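Thread: Newbie trying to understand structure tokens

Hi all, I'm a second-year student working on a class project, and my supervisor (Dr. K.) asked me to get a predicted structure for one chain before our next meeting. I've only ever worked with sequences, so writing a 3D structure as a token string is new to me. If someone could post the tokens and maybe explain what I'm looking at, I'd be very grateful. Here's the chain:
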Amino acid sequence: MSEISAGDAMATAASAVGWRRAGIAGAAIGVIAAGAAAGVAVERMTVGRGMRRRARLALDASGPYGSLRGMPGRAAADDGTELYYETDEVEPDGGTGAGAGPRAGSGPAGTGPRRRRLFGRKVPGPVTVVFSHGYCLSQDSWHFQRAALRDLVRTVHWDQRSHGRSERGRAQAQGVTVGIDQLGRDLKAVIDAAAPEGRLVLVGHSMGGMTIMALAEQYPQLIRERVAAVAFVGTSSGKLGEVSFGLPVAGVNAVRRVLPGVLRALGSQAELVERGRRATADLFAGLIKRYSFSSRDVDPAVERFAERLIESTPIDVVAEFYPAFTEHDKSTALPAFRDVPVLILAGDKDLVTPSSHSEAIADQLPDAELVIVPDGGHLVMLEHPETVTDRLADLLVRIGAVPAAANVGGHGSTAQQPGS
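---
Reply by user tm_fold:
Sure, no problem. This is what the structure looks like when written as tokens:
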């Protein structure tokens, strides 16, 4: 029954946009949507559409997620695309340029028992932590980590091309296919504009981690001379074409055969499709929840925040980025990180970039710290923010970027707070 419901839902959405290949798309995507559609069907029998709409609006207003802002800036990519970034500066008195409170903790940077030697290579100095987000997200997906670190260390958060507040890729608007190598060059442009000097810590989730690998492959000297540490969160160095997305073999093979064509067709009718997406918001919310989170007790406002992030990515952008992932293979770039501290973290139930892909990265970086988060999905930094922030803070302490006594434990909880 659930597969029929999913197929019917997708067929209805497709007919609304007048797409003549609705049957093929419904059959393929319906396999993925089956589990989500079953839950949506139950919800529709018990909760009216108007009530669901009011609930979404209430959730949008209840959480501050994505509201943190820093000093804006723009970098120019090699094709002229404007890349938007924000910087949270640390002031000499311990506050930040973004208006945060006093520094948590005290004591000189690098003190305490957790500091480790950086292989005798790096010159001590100010550190900038550069966060790169994943596919169909934006810089706001790092909300909890940004809240925890903004009064401790200089950070840069940027939107990948065609995502968030960055400009639509100019080369893509002219028909040039986007690739992970292009994203690596984009990251280099952001670093040149936002952090031209000093040590760097590179943090990437999913596509953002792939972006860091592409940077290393194209600019190995930058890695050798300036990168003090790296954190890979829910990412992959290749073989994404083998990911099953939690589906049976027959289902995933059907999806792989038709999905690229489906996305191209949808992308060519972006305005109509966006109306269709809004009309089937409940179904897509179920899909987003299934492929973003694993835990049962995620704050509903966080779930809704993830929906907003993903829904804000236009369908033509979704379509033009998708082929890059099946072609992605940066395993040969990983040795560039062997001489720096590396954190590799993933959710154990990630259906998009399974934890086995993180383990494969760790196999090539035997000195790296590998953390598999129990009951964690793809958006692990939103689902288990305290775990992610704690491990990231530990990495920063190890390189002397934040004081060992710094307190980041009070930030990044998805639990409902008393009186909230």
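A couple of things are worth pointing out once you decode it. The chain has two domains: 2-46+244-316, 71-238+328-398. Residues 285 and 307 are 6 Å apart (CA to CA). Feel free to ask follow-ups in this thread.
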